[in-house]
Amino acid sequence: MRVVIAEDSTLLREGLVRLLALDGIETVAAVDTAPALIDAVDTLAPDLAVIDVRMPPTFSDEGIRAALEIRARWPEVAVLILSQYVEERYAAELLSGSTRSVGYLLKDRVADVEDFLGAVRRVADGGTALDPEVVAQLLVRRVGSPVDRLTPREHEVLSLMAEGLSNAGIAAALVVSESAVAKHVNAIFAKLPLSETPAPHRRVLAVLEFLAARKDPS
């Protein structure tokens, strides 16, 4: 796996390079500005870009806007946002386009190195990795959404799906059987309704509906 890192903090940037190297992941560029990130992706064609949200010169939203540009210009490049902040406007846009090869983790909530490295590999492999706090900050409920039809447990299962968990992962998180999770997932598909769509695609559409229901309509 070949990775580009965009992080303005020298210590964190170098720390990420070394951490990834210990897991056999090659960092082909480590930069500190959004323009340098775009140049690196264009020139080096990495598998994954790990990106901070707030970068020079304004330290506002340069990183996540660069992530959106990468998704538009190089959709084959996976994007993992690693930040202290949830930039809601752009996060909703990033996550509503597709849940494939995208992640958004909060620095202060990354408590386990193995979990982080697992998220890196999952996103690079086409999966999703969303911090629950990111999902929570997008929870601006839209009246009349099909998501409103879900029971509290089904809503909880869908939230965990949005974080990128498999049925087995959801079962472990909720301390229930995989068969119970499968029943909830099937109920979610039926209520949204997504029951006639192929199973892998239904899962993606369900997560997109979940995220869309939580975008601020204003």
TrEMBL record:
Keyword Lipid biosynthesis: no
CDD domains on file: LuxR_C_like (cd06170), REC_NarL-like (cd17535)
Keywords recorded for this protein, A-Z: DNA-binding, Phosphoprotein, Transcription, Transcription regulation
MF terms in GO: DNA binding
Residue numbers of 4-aspartylphosphate PTMs: 52
Domain Response regulatory residues, every copy: 2-122
Residue ranges of domain HTH luxR-type in the record: 143-208
An example Gene Ontology biological process: regulation of DNA-templated transcription
Protein name: Response regulator transcription factor
Species of provenance: Candidatus Phosphoribacter hodrii
Lineage of origin: Bacteria, Bacillati, Actinomycetota, Actinomycetes, Micrococcales
